[in-house]
């Protein structure tokens, strides 16, 4: 049995929807033919000449009308494995008594009350985050919009052996034989779950999508009104790049047809890395906050027989992420932001850095939990000073368990411009840092 047939059979036996199998097969054939998904610098131009969200001016009734036709979708499939977690990252506390999920729920409920709108909140969970997330949200019985579910599941696909592209076997932990197909699966999962049709049947027209670990991407009626008035089928939020943003996805303009294209770091050839990191050339990065017209998405999926045709991302890993000696595998992935090139008339809008507050490391988590940020009555998260640069020693602070063992109380960082920790340090009560702080010592502390 060849690799594709074996993978398809495994997906059928697991009950994966046929449309998701078709999308996987589309990518598999590209992978088998040697596709890498690379986007060369010679084939693109930098993104220029876009509007800034700060210049929007919208009538209050337009705000309410747009908000009442919009659904908030949060990507909630991440386990926080880079920080040593084995459950949904969104369960992490970000302030006393508040997790990511609590803040998200508060933001949505505030907009509903303020504008008198429905504004459904729907999570795209993975099979690894589903149970814990639903337990955490059970304390908000009114969060679910009548007639709509609170979640849908991201699809799953087999990990493929790197040597022969057959589905990997790992009897020690069979669940590690499977992986999510990247957040580009959003569009497929919306349709296979039936939620896309449900939303359209109930009069919803627009979707705003962001990661659950980005609390800056709060539902914004002003942005909703802008997107509704734009008539665009799709829009991406971008921010000005800084030296800290040389990695990550950024939008470029494809030379041969003028379309916007998302180029991820994994899609940048090594010889083009310097050009891609040039802040004077590529001035914006993709926040992974995006907008799309539900009706246009439905029509496009139907016209393409359920296969949107996103660019392939070839992700090479080991079958067990905790064991570098386990077999090397390829995970077929796609990025939801790559859909910008699918839709005629897709656009981008520049937003302030306040719309981008992701937590990818314990450095980010220390900042978010510190007095640099405040959470208002509207559950908006805002910085009261310019955030300092935090760089914790990965040997002692890299995982959540290590971080919590050492950071008993987050220090005051309002007067700090940077914090660098090298060594095994512990933070106790009433610690305030000022200026550029460097803590150095051996593994026993200093």
What is shown here, in short?
The chain is an alpha/beta fold and 446 residues long. It is 26% helix and 24% strand.
Task: Give an overview in words.
The chain has 446 residues and is α/β, with parallel strands linked by helices. The chain folds into two domains: 3-355, Alpha-Beta Complex (Spore Coat Polysaccharide Biosynthesis Protein SpsA, Chain A), CATH 3.90.550; 362-440, 3 Solenoid (UDP N-Acetylglucosamine Acyltransferase, domain 1). Helix content is 26%, strand content 24%. The protein contains 13 helices and 22 strands. The chain is globular.
Low-pLDDT stretches are: none
**Strands in their spatial order, largest beta sheet:** 6-5-2-10-14-11-17
The CATH superfamily of the largest domain bears the name: Spore Coat Polysaccharide Biosynthesis Protein SpsA, Chain A
- Backbone CA Rg: 22 Å
CATH topology of the largest domain: Spore Coat Polysaccharide Biosynthesis Protein SpsA, Chain A
As a percent range, the share of helical residues equals 25-40%
Helix count, DSSP H or I runs of 4 or more residues: 13
Strand content: 15-25%
Q: Span from first to last CA?
A: 60 Å
Shape: globular
Structural class: alpha/beta
CATH architectural type of the largest domain: Alpha-Beta Complex
Q: What is the total number of structural domains? A: 2
Could you give the count of β-strands?
Answer: 22
- CATH hierarchy, class of the largest domain: Alpha Beta
Q: Averaged pLDDT, please?
A: 94
- Biggest sheet, in brief? 7 strands, mixed
